[in-house]
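Justification of resources, computational component.

The compute hours requested in this renewal are based largely on the per-chain cost of generating structure records like the one below. Each record pairs the submitted sequence with a full structure-token output. That output is archived, and it is also reused by downstream analysis tasks.
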Amino acid sequence: MRRYETVFILRPSQSEDEINAIIENTKNIILSDKGSIIDLNKWGMKKLAYTIKKEIQGQYVFCDFAGTPASVAEFERKFRIDDAVLKYLTIKTADAISEEEIGKAIAEADAKHAVQAKETSEDEDQAVTEEDESIEETTDEE
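The structure output for this chain reads:
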């Protein structure tokens, strides 16, 4: 097993169901070869640095996984065929990864997501509090 990271950019016109279908297909290829998904993030719509296939925006998806070179070759082959995929890049981050290291990496990714979710909820709470304060100031002035 080797550790890889893949980022792929999908057309902005893709619906949420179509994006999820591409992600599921990629996950199934990795998992069918006895691989493991460590981290999978939809980064959302981003502006491209340059136009790709006449598109100026794209839906970014990041996948950190442990798998075999054959599974990488297979999903990259499908990416080349699929018109919805604008670009993709896969890099090998480790030549070998054990089951223990995979479990540790998954735990680290989950912890990172939990911290991000907590920060997001705190930011939203702060925004609501600031909005409430501005409403109170407006009513005091009247």
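The chain has two domains: 1-97, 99-142. Strands lie at 2-10, 36-52, 55-67, 85-94.
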